[in-house]
Specification:
Strand order of the largest sheet: 1-3-2
CATH superfamily of the largest domain: Metalloproteases ("zincins"), catalytic domain
Helix content: 40-55%
Number of domains: 2
Subcellular location: Cytoplasm
CATH architecture of the largest domain: 2-Layer Sandwich
Radius of gyration: 23 Å
Domain SprT-like: 19-170
Structural class: alpha+beta
Keywords: Cytoplasm, Metal-binding, Zinc
Number of strands: 6
Protein name: Protein SprT
Largest sheet: 3 strands, mixed
Number of helices: 5
Organism: Zestomonas carbonaria
């Protein structure tokens, strides 16, 4: 069972982020003296990316895990970074470079932030299963993903490019 304080913090997550998105839009509107349509905002992003801007859909997706672990910088830098993509797209059109001079202008001029292309947040790698397959070569060991291992179980064959023999499951399963 979670403590009430932790639950409240999780509910506040989208509220703080949405408030920051709105503040970024208001800054851009004051700077460019025009209105911008607000995006759909979602927390449905996993993996290494902190945020993604879907330009044609006017949508922002954020990584909740990286947000929780880096909240202050995430709200300041990552949210502005992604909003700047949408603003640049709406001002300058679809042919601009993602982190080009137009986007950099918005980061520096509107938000007064450094135009960093990538975050430096620590990303925890999830554990993955590897199924070890062998061929006739002396060093012929091939770690297969669970998906590829399942394809073999369904009858698919994979071959070694060097010795051209069919790869065979060794029975060894590793978790990395």
């Amino acid at each position: 069972m979670r403590p009430a304080g932790g639950l409240r913090h999780n509910r506040a997550m989208p509220e703080l982020l949405n408030a920051r998105v709105e503040a970024c839009y208001q800054q851009a509107e004051a700077f460019f003296k025009r209105r911008f349509p607000r995006p759909e905002v979602s927390f449905k992003l996993r993996g290494q990316k902190a945020g993604v801007a879907h330009l044609d859909e006017n949508k922002l997706r954020f990584n909740p895990q990286l947000y929780r672990e880096n909240q202050e910088d995430f709200l300041r830098q990552t949210v502005a970074h992604e909003v700047a993509h949408l603003i640049a797209h709406q001002l300058f059109g679809p042919t601009i470079q993602p982190h080009g001079e137009e986007w950099q202008l918005i980061m520096r001029g509107v938000y007064e932030l450094p135009p960093h292309r990538c975050h430096s947040y620590e990303v925890k790698r999830r554990r993955v299963s590897r199924f070890i397959y062998l061929c006739g070569c002396p060093d012929g060991e091939f770690p297969f993903s669970a998906q590829r291992h399942a394809m073999v179980a369904k009858g698919r064959r994979y071959y070694c490019r060097r010795c051209r023999t069919t790869l065979v499951f060794s029975g060894e399963h590793r978790v990395e």
